[in-house]
Automatic annotation (TrEMBL):
SUPFAM superfamilies from the UniProt entry: P-loop containing nucleoside triphosphate hydrolases (SSF52540)
Superkingdom of the source species: Bacteria
Organism field: Phaeospirillum tilakii
Gene3D superfamilies, per database record: P-loop containing nucleotide triphosphate hydrolases
Domain named AAA: residues: 10-180
CDD domains: ParAB_family
Protein's UniProt name: ParA family protein
Signal peptide: none
Length: 269
């Protein structure tokens, strides 16, 4: 008898501070895992809509978006997913005009993503969250299995990490006891800059070395790929950024303590 498929792993990529590399991380991790054969769904919960743009997906006027979940009772979030140009990778785009109206049930997103029927269709869900303490971010953390916190290695971004960690522990001690901090992800990293080293040393002391993920080095190719609406592994496969996200995509699933369902061989970019 065949064992039932495990439910999708739900990963929230979050930081209370904008410009911290959240969306770049969402797009490139999603592409890396899809290239390995996983079925990946990106849900763009940030009204800037950048995750969809980074994957070449946007909602037209009147078309369904991720934010319809919060204003249309009975809305099927997964049915609103759009295929991307890359096999196995789909995206529910954001609504840039969403103003926070509608229901504010902290369990709305979890109810959609914990449906038993999704296990046979999706392996990983990645949530791109807004850089604000609002009910959408709370929904994301209440639904997630784990959180990755990207950060720029400077003082303001480090403070954003501390603010998010307080919310994380509030959710983990209440609405979602299974929530885990997968790790902190330094982005736009230059190990030769003393300030970068000092900030990372402080975060390592506070959160522990086991919480510090492989860093993403500064690389203009990541911005160029995003502007082209393509992941770095497609746009600039030999770039530092593409290599760093390739390695990160191998590191993160090991921290889930559950193997990522992948094919035996990568799909060519």
């Amino acid at each position: 008898m065949t064992a039932p498929a495990p439910p999708p792993f739900i990963l929230s990529v979050s930081n209370r501070k904008g410009g911290s590399g959240k969306t770049t991380t969402v797009v490139n991790l999603a592409a890396e895992w899809a290239a390995r054969g996983a079925r990946v769904l990106v849900v763009d919960l940030d009204t800037q809509g950048h995750a969809g743009l980074g994957l070449g997906v946007a909602a037209g006027r009147g078309e369904p978006t991720a934010h319809d979940l919060f204003r249309r009772p009975g809305f099927d979030l997964v049915a609103a997913a759009r295929p991307t140009a890359w096999p196995g990778l789909s995206c529910v785009p954001a609504d840039p005009l969403f103003e926070g109206d509608g229901e504010r049930d902290p369990g709305q997103l979890a109810a959609q993503l914990r449906r038993p029927d999704l296990a046979a269709r999706i392996d990983v869900v990645i949530l791109d969250t807004p850089p604000a303490l609002d009910f959408i971010l709370i929904n994301a953390l209440a639904a997630a299995d784990g959180v990755v916190i990207p950060l720029l290695p400077h003082a303001l971004s480090a403070e954003g990490v501390r603010q998010l960690s307080r919310l994380f522990f509030r959710i983990a001690s209440g609405a979602n006891p299974a929530l885990r901090l997968i790790g902190l992800l330094p982005v736009m990293l230059n190990p030769r800059v003393n300030h970068h080293q000092a900030i990372l040393a402080g975060l390592t002391r506070q959160f522990g070395p086991e919480r510090m993920l492989r860093g993403i080095r500064a690389d203009i190719a990541l911005a160029e790929a995003f502007a082209a609406g393509r992941p770095a592994r497609v746009h600039a496969p030999r770039s530092r950024g593409a290599l760093d996200y390739h390695l990160l995509a191998e590191e993160v699933p090991r921290l889930w303590r559950r193997p990522l369902p992948v094919s035996a061989q990568e799909v060519p970019a």
